[in-house]
């Protein structure tokens, strides 16, 4: 993961972490020093009301109830980003359901 992240930074690509992803992974800085270090080199995208509504619509379209997965897909499509994920199957399910092509990088 660190090598992949370093490669993106070397190409001046700053990864975006949707706030729901951070909420799902976060258990406290003292327990997660590596995650804290990684997050300092990323942009955390907040979930506004408008974004929450967009994610809700996409969740309905995809019949996928994991809002974290759906928020990842929504943001990646909006920003034209690739998705780095350990769960390519869920990410592709959402993207396919809304008829979108999405680049993924499995980890």
Structure description:
- With about 110 residues, this protein is mainly alpha-helical.
- It has one domain: Rossmann fold (3-Layer(aba) Sandwich), CATH 3.40.50.1010.
- Helices cover about 55% and strands about 10% of the residues.
- The chain is built from 6 helices and 4 strands, in the order H-E-H-H-E-H-H-E-H-E.
- Helix 6 (about 90-95) links the parallel strand 3 and strand 4 (about 105).
- Helix 4 (about 50-60) crosses helix 5 (about 65-80), helix 4 packs across helix 6 (about 90-95) and helix 5 packs across helix 6 (about 90-95).
- The termini are close together.
- The model has no long low-confidence stretch (mean pLDDT about 95).
Q: Could you tell me the number of beta strands?
A: 4
Order of helices and strands: HEHHEHHEHE
What is the helix fraction of residues, given as a range? 55-70%
Assign an overall shape: globular
Distinct helical segment count: 6
Mean pLDDT: 94
Second CATH tier, the architecture: 3-Layer(aba) Sandwich
Give the CA-CA distance, first to last residue. 7 Å
Query: If you compute it from the alpha carbons, what radius of gyration comes out, rounded to the nearest whole angstrom?
Result: 14 Å
């Amino acid at each position: 993961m660190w090598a992949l992240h370093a490669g993106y930074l070397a190409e001046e690509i700053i990864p975006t972490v949707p706030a729901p992803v951070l909420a799902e992974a976060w258990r406290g800085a003292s327990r997660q020093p590596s995650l804290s270090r990684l997050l300092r080199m990323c942009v955390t995208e907040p979930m506004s009301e408008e974004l929450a509504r967009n994610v809700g619509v996409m969740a309905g379209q995809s019949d996928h109830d994991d809002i974290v997965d759906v928020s990842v897909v929504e943001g990646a499509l909006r920003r034209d980003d690739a998705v780095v994920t350990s769960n390519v199957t869920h990410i592709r399910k959402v993207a396919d359901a809304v008829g979108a092509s999405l680049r993924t990088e499995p980890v």
